[in-house]
Amino acid sequence: SGPAVTAVRGSLAWFSDDPFLTSDDRALEYVEDGLLVCRDGRITASGRYGDLVGSLPPGTAVVHHRGKLVLPGLIDPHVHYVQTRITGSYGEELLDWLQRYVYPEEVRFADAAYARSCAALFCDQLLRNGTTTALVGCATFPVSVDALFEEAARRGMRIAAGKVLMDRNARTDLLDRSPIRAYEESEALIRRWHGVGRNLYAVTPRFAVACTDEMLRLAGRLWHAHPGTLAQTHLAENREEVGQVRELFPDRRDYVDVYDHFGLLGRGAVFAHAVHLNGREWRRLSESGSGVAHCPTSNLFLGSGLFSARAAKDPRHPVRTGLGTDVGGGTGLSLLETMGEAYKVGRLRGFPMSGVGLFYLATLGGAQAMGLEGTVGSLAPGNEADFVVLDPSATPMLAARTAESETVGDLLFALGHLGDDRAVALTYVGGRVAHERGPCRDAEG
Ligand code: GUN
Ligand code: ZN
User: Fold this and answer.
1) Of 318, 341, 369, which marks where a domain is finished?
2) What is the pLDDT of residues 92-119, one digit of tens each?
3) Which of 233, 227, 225 has the alpha carbon at shortest distance from 183?
4) Which ligand 1 atom is at minimum distance from the Cα of 330?
C-alpha cells in the first residue's frame, strides 16, 4: 500500500476531443510543466504545476519526471492473450493461419496452468509497453478467462475480456459443444468476473465464419441481458473471409448486417479490422455507436488489406476508432510501434496522420471505441489514474531525433516512429507504479 495522494510532475498531454473531427490544436491538451494529482486510484487534478502545487495536502511527495511526457495509459482495443506465443508465425493469409497456428495454440488453454503462465506474461508485457487497458480475446475454455482476469486483478488493470464463442468451421476440440452451453458458461463467467476489481466482461463471438446463426443469436441476447458488458468480434478482415460470410448468411445484405441482425451493434461493441466495408456498413457502425479497432501490423503481416482511416473518420458519419495490436496476428504488443504502421497504412491510402492523431487513437480513441470514455484514456479529473511516462531520449536514436524538437506534436510523431517499450519509462496503474523500465542496458538502444 502506498500514500493516498500521488502527485507527478512532468509535461502532460491528453485529448479532450477527436482531432480527426476538430483539429490537433483543439483536441490536444498540453501542459509543459504540469502536475497530475491522484487520489484513491483516480485523477483529481491535472494542470500547471505552479497553479496546483500549493493545494497539495501537506507532506505530499511530488515525483518529478523531468523532460518526460506524461500521457494517459495506452489502450489496446483488440488483442488475443492466447496467441502471445505464436506471434510472428509464418503462414498464408488469415483462414489458413488460423487453422495452422492459432487453433492448435488455443487448444492448449484448456490447461489452467498453461493459461496462467501465458496470462502473467501477457499482462506484464502490456505494462512494459505502456498499455493499461485492453480488450482481450481468450479461448473457448472458461479456465482461459479465469486465468486472465486473475492476473489482471492482481495488477489492478482495467481489462475487458471474454470466452470465445465458436461452434463451426474449426477443429472440434476447440469448438463449443452447443450454443446454449456456451451461453451458460459465459453467464457464469460474467457472474464471477464482471465488475470484480476493474475487470469487465466482453461477449466474444469469434467471427461470423465460426458461429452458427444460433450462436450469434445467443451472443446478442447475452450481451443485452448484461448491461455494462462489452461485445467484441472480427469484421471484414480478409477478402476470402468476407466471401465465406456472404455464402453462409445469404439473407443478410453485408457483413455488418450479419452482426446487426443478431443485435451485436452498439456502444461497447468493438469490431476488429473493418478493412473491407462498403459505405452502408460504415454508416451503420457510426449510427449504432459501435467501435472499430484498426490493427495495422496484423493487416500487413497477414496481407489482409489497408484500413481506411478516412472512411472511419468521415465527418458525416464518424466511427469510434482505436488502435489494436491484434497479437498474435499483429507482430507485437507495442502501441508505439503500431502507430508507426498505422501512419504508413494511412500514407499509402492518402490519409497520413499526425503524431497527435496517432496518440489520440491509442488513448481516447480506444476508450471511445470500448465505450469507456470518462473512465480511462484521459488525464482529465475524474478519470482513473492510469498513465505512462514516456522518455523522448530513451534511445540514442530518439535522443538525437528529439533533441531539437520544438513542438509536442513533433515529439509525439517521433515517439510514434522510433519508440517501443524502451521509451516507456514508467507505467502507472490506479495511481501506482506498475512498471519501471530497467536502467542502462535498455537505454543503450
Ligand atoms: N478472425 C477470427 N479469429 C481471428 C483471430 O484469432 N485473429 C485474427 N486476426 N482474425 C480472426
Ligand atoms: Zn483478432
Assistant:
1) 369
2) 899 999 999 999 999 999 999 999 999 9
3) 225
4) 9
